[in-house]
Amino acid sequence: MASYKTAPSPSSRMPDGIPYIIVNDIAERFSFYGMKAILVVFMTQYLMSTDGQLATMSRADATSYFHLFVSTTYFLPIIGAVIADAYWGKYRTVILLSVVYCAGHFALFLDDTRAGLFLGLTLIAIGSGGIKPSVASNVGDQFGKSNEHLLSRAFSWYYLGINIGSSLSSLLIPWLLKAYGPAVAFGVPGLFMLAATVTFWMGRHHFVHLPPAGKSYLKDVFGSDGKRVAGRLLVIYVLVAAFWSLFDQMGSTWVLQAMQMDRTILGYELLPAQIQAMNPFLIIVLIPIFSYYVYPLMNRYFDVTSGRKMCMGMFLAASPFLVTAWCESQIQLGNTPHISWQLLAYFLMTLAEVLLVVTCMEFSYTQAPKRMKSLVMALFYLSISAGNLFTALVNQVIQNPDGTTKLVGASYHLFFAGFMGIVALIFAVYMRFYQEQHIIQEESKP
Length: 446
Known about the structure:
By secondary structure, the protein is an all-alpha fold. The protein is about 70% helix and about 0% strand.
C-alpha cells in the first residue's frame, strides 16, 4: 500500500482515478447486461441437454430462475463489502473477484447445458455481486472537502457509464444470439469483462486506496453508531426493494410480453430482448436533462432534497405497470398492440429510475460512516436482491398445479402497480422524518 495514495489530495478538479472507474464500469456493465438480456430467451429457446437435445424451460420457470439469479447477485455485495472494508481493501477485492467474474462468462461460452448455466451464473453472481459495493464506493473515496462539489457529477457519470454499457449490449447481444448462437453471444460479454478488469488494473496508481479497517471493523459495524446508521437506512432499502421488484421485470415479464406485440418500427422488426435497450438510452438522455434543467427549475419553487427526489421516483414507478396491464388486456383479446405502448412504460420507469436510483446511490454514500462506505452501498444493492426475490416468489406462488396461473393477464401487472403504490405511501411518510447527513473522506495533508 505504500506506493498508493491512501487519502484524497486537496484539489478542486475531478480526481484522476474517475475516468478509469467509468471505463471499467462501461465494460463491466456491457458484460453483465449483455448476458442478462438474453438469459430468459436462452433458457426458453436454446438450453440443451447433455446428449445434444433441446431441454428448454417453461416461461414461468425461466422467469423465476432469472429473478433468483439477479437476487443472488445483489445479495452477495454484503459479503464483498465486508471482505473489502475489513480485510482486502477495495482495489484488491475488485481485481480478484473480477477474475472469478471472467471465469463465469467463460463457463457460459463453453457449455450450453444446465450444468454450464448453473456454473456460469454462480461464478458471475459471486464476481459481479462481490465487486459492486467496492466499485461504487470507490467513486466517493476519491473525493475530499476541496472537490466534494463534484461528487454528484461523478456519480451521475458513473450511472451514465452503467447505461452506456447496458444500452449497447442490449442491442448487440440479442442479435448475436439469433445470428451466431449462444457461444458467441455469451463469449463477447466475457471479452468485455476481461477488458474491464485490465482497465481497473491500469488505474491502480491513480486511485485512492483506503486501508482496510482490520479487526476493528466489526466494532464499527456493531457499535452504537454503526447499528443506528444501518437501522435507519435498512428501512429505506426495504421499501426501495419494491421498486426493483418492478424494474427488473423489464428483463423477464416485459420481454415475454414483447414477444406477443407488433415490434416493427420504421420497417425494422426489433427482437423482444432488444426492447430493453430503450431504458439505458433514455437514462443517457434524461440524466443530463434532470441535472442541468429539471432540478434547477424545481429548486425555484421548493428545496429539491434527496428524500423528495426519491419519493417522486417511488410514486412514479407504479405507472408503467398500468401501461403494461393495458397491453396485456389487449393481448388476451387476441389483439396485437404495437410495441410503442411498452416503450411508454419504459419511459415512465426510466423517469422513476432517474429520480430514485441515481439519487439513492449518492445518498447511500453520504449517509455512511467513513469506514462503512462499502457495507452501506452493499445494503443498497441488497434492496435489488430483495426485490427480485419477491418477484421470484410471487411467480412461484401464483402457479397452479395444472400449469395455469392465479394472476392471469392484466391482473398480474395490476398487482405489482398496486403493491408499488402502497409502498410509495409508506416511503413518503418515513422520509418526512428522516434527518439527512453528509459524510465524506478526509483529505491528505499538503
